[in-house]
Design goal:
Structural class of chain A: alpha/beta
Oligomer: homotetramer
Number of helices of chain A: 11
Largest interface: A-B, 48 and 48 residues
Distance between the termini of chain A: 44 Å
Radius of gyration of chain A: 23 Å
CATH architecture of the largest domain in chain A: Alpha-Beta Barrel
Strand order of the largest sheet of chain A: 7-8-9-10-11-12-13-14
Shape of chain A: elongated
CATH topology of the largest domain in chain A: TIM Barrel
Number of strands of chain A: 14
């Protein structure tokens, strides 16, 4: 950690900062320049993270040298993490596609959609049983009934299922049914929920929060990993910006940045990012080209009657057409699909 | 609701949209202009909110006419809501100040800080027993022990206490101790937590999410109100923008906008917004001047040894000096403090 | 245009709004619902754009139905615009690549770089003679001398040249040398400069401003088109968001949105968006996959000694390797390169 | 400047970085920690600003220690700059108010408005003769005719005039008429225009760009100062964020941050920031309370017929009422008005 002192800092102030740092067990290195005196604190930087050095008199700014995440960092583990979910390899050469409806709306429609996305080439099935909705007056999901339909769809198609956890009181229930537990964007910093899934042995798909920096995203993954669960899939799904022509702004630069910073697999959800089905195809192709390990795409048999996010759902035939192109894009960048 | 149809829409497409709307029990009004055909749907707009009209062929855009929130709106209740928290009136002529440490760190320091903020003129005491922290390696709060110290501080000073709820499994415990339950910025869209506090009879202080629009902020309040709990205090605490010289950007325009849109009291937390104690005074004065019903300010006896947010905490003497100026600003804009 | 009136609007207020609209030559249609009265103004909406209807008593909000841009809209001209720049077709099936250094730094290095990007497959050459720099103390470009070197590079390689215009007093000079005049992101709303290039007969490459919405971007293109110059290339180059791990956030969703809204060709500049050469490859592939008509990539022979933007420049060999992959991606999405 | 090297950096890479820095005339200090090797470059940091050290092999990140602006910094000149504009002191104890219409629309209406804002207590008159408009089809200003009316208004009222410069070809003309030259938000990084007004001897009111950081804002002021013109007034006018309930988000935290960083006077323009006259009063009070040296407020005699920004203009009587309250707020924070 580098501590920059104010111009005109006194010797007493310097001494006070130095003692503080030494008291935490770190070595100190002082460098007096023409304009500023700088203190380098050498040793385990994490103990300093909890200490408000900026609050000390004479301190102008504090610059950490190391990243605040460890277990999830590429520095900690250089080779890519590859997860195996009932035989589906996540994070390897093959690009995987999670597809299905936003929410589970009924047994028959779910089973039919599951068959169709399987035929289209999807390798995992998505569907929400518990739905976070902006309005208390909107459809909130079928709950356990929805989970049962998902399990039935898995049995029929063999597709592992991905479904969202919203409440720590449902963790046990969800773990019974799900193959992958999804933590939604609005819960990316619900630290209790992260701790809870960190104690499970199920893979977790963690979505990036609407206004989360990449650093915060990785810190949330670190929460899960620090409890012992290292089976984490990161999922970019758009960030909030001033632009209103799409629901959110899909930050595809985050994919190569994440691949540098972490060994964890990185997915992209273009459906929630753009919010309109007409744009999902173009952004899906871009996601594969940019290096994503997988996609999460909303598919609905009958979008105009969907109870949730109908506007952004692809019909099964459009999904199948898209998959054919995605296969070519994957091959162009040295992947398979 | 206004439905704008695409140029070149067919008669069949128009008919299909019209049937859809009529099927939901609304009247339809069609207006054919030179450039566009427009359909007005007349009646209870809320049934349309769940229907993805944008997904219908021929539809270009859909524009709601009414706001999606009801119970919390100024239109629903025109006079200001005034809460009474153990005799402290929130939302009336008097500007109230919640002060105290970020987290409860120990019994003695809390009791001392409580006495000092009371002397300085604070009318409520804040302090976190459960702390949401970006890093899993940071201090997470004292839990129930912290709640007990808060209760002791209340007994000694008479100040009602405000403390944060992070987990629905703690709701009952918190309700035993707290006078006001705080929902933090990162939980503003933790819909299960909102539902839970909506079922309590304790006042709730709801903080605006880092990337929440004012509309979403009010929808989260609506979640609470829709369960029966109408004792809600809204709290602006800065939004996330590109500017990095302050931790967040305090959106003071939100205060007069909220006062137009809702009857609920509106507070401001300048400490978390700016993240540096040197700036807290200026923004506190601005918050009172802009029309806030109250402030939430971090005060710590010994900021350099604080376990949390020491950099943004005022020392008690600075707090007292600030309160003297705030009193004058309040009077300048026709309020008391 | 739809005018929504406030709840409780008086008959006099309605009458006043109606007269105002009729006075502008439009027909009026009034619809009284249970909750709100709505006025539809039928006719040429553009006359209303200049009238502050929101300022009239009783008006709650005003919603335009039509887009504010005309000449550049897909509605005005449905087929794609294809430009021919010395034989290079822009906006057709082939994806074109503009490459070269950020700024022209000297004759020899420019000529060498020009040969290398030509060998790598670039079809146009970029290079700044006038440079907008955040600091007054940074290198500001070689001026006319730089333009001469660019002309020499064109002569040697046959590559048309793209160079930036910063000042209306240089328009004539630039038109003598350049094949395409670039308007930089910081000048996207320099309306006088837009007007000036609108009066030229040179193609214009217009970069999106750092905080410009897609609508504003198209309005700036409309400025140019409204003066008679319809040879416009739009270029996405990243927008400003809260994320700091890349210099800007490349908004690739803007490409399919622009292709819907306008007939003009759309390019992407990943170099300026991400600001680090390691990320340029991934984003270039994504840009081609998402449907861009071309790319603008910074290439420098000796990045560590570059006078400008060395950190984001590819070396010529990396550029050639990338071009080979881009060719495959282009083919995967039905284009050539 | 601190250069952080990558884990696993080689001795050759370290040597290369060291030579590079020494070659620029700086001393080097190397510190090898457990996790990272760090190089401190001691001496005139500005020579490094132009050198892309991040592009060198083995370099992880580069952290400047000093601010990139000099002449405008508080460190360079600790006492506040106070400008004298025809006797109106800007930057002293008195808060000054610039008021008037968005654009000059005609002689009579300007003269009347000028008289009224003078009566209300304004100390400078604003009015645009050249108007930057998002649409090429909107009113673009009266040009020199407008400047003449402004001069006449000054003669009648004694109020110095503030008017916007958009084009370097108008600099001379504007200098003849204006007392303060305004550089609008969209031109904050029109570096040629900044250089031009830096060569004038007229005070400049520089507005913050919509997506400009405070650092960039000060760098633009540095452009002007570096040419010799030190008479600069900074003006916060709202930044672009995701929030749409106000036109922009007024960043009042920028005021105390700027007062720390620079000796220049800081104004606030609440009218453009919020975009609705109903909100202008509250934000004006907040601006004075937060420590602004002045305000810029739009006032129009007949907002519903304004050719520009009628929605955000106060009528003269509302302006006078507001000024009475602002006087009290100014006194509450130790200023006069």
């Amino acid at each position: 950690m580098i501590i920059v002192l104010k111009k005109g800092v006194t010797e007493e102030e310097i001494e006070h900062v130095v003692e503080k740092i030494k008291g935490l067990g770190l070595a100190v290195h002082i460098s007096k320049g023409q304009e500023r005196t700088i203190i380098g604190a050498i040793g385990d930087e994490s103990v300093l993270a909890a200490t408000p050095l900026e609050a000390l008199p004479g301190v102008e700014s504090v610059m950490p040298i190391l990243k605040p995440y460890k277990l999830v960092s590429r520095e900690f583990k250089s080779e890519d993490t590859v997860l195996d979910i009932s035989g589906v390899k996540i994070g390897g050469k093959a690009v995987q596609v999670i597809a299905g409806p936003c929410s589970v709306e009924g047994r028959d429609i779910l089973l039919e959609t599951a068959r169709e996305v399987k035929n289209g080439g999807a390798t995992l099935l998505r569907g929400g049983a518990f739905k976070p909705r902006t309005s208390p007056y909107s459809f909130q999901g079928l709950g356990e009934e929805g989970l049962k339909y998902l399990a039935e769809a898995r049995k029929q198609t063999g597709l592992p299922i991905v479904t969202e956890l919203m409440d720590p009181r449902d963790t046990e229930l969800l773990c019974e049914y799900a193959d992958v537990i999804q933590i939604g964007a609005r819960n990316m910093q619900n630290f209790r929920l992260l701790t809870d899934v960190g104690d499970c042995d199920k893979p977790v798909l963690l979505k990036r929060g609407l206004s989360a920096t990449i650093k915060e995203f990785l810190m949330s993954a670190e929460y899960i990993a620090s409890r012992g669960n290292k089976q984490i899939i990161l999922c970019e799904r758009g960030i909030r910006t001033f632009e209103t022509s799409t629901r959110n702004t899909l930050d595809l630069s985050s994919v190569p940045v994440l691949k540098e910073e972490t060994h964890l697999p990185v997915f992209v959800d273009p459906s929630h990012a753009v919010g309109r089905w007409e744009l999902v195809g173009a952004l899906s192709k871009a996601s594969v080209a940019v290096g994503a390990d997988g996609l999460m795409i909303e598919v609905h048999n009958d979008p105009e009657n969907a109870l949730c996010d109908g506007v952004q759902s692809l019909k099964p035939d459009k999904f199948s057409e898209l998959m054919a192109v995605l296969k070519k894009v994957a091959e162009a960048v040295g992947r398979t699909l």
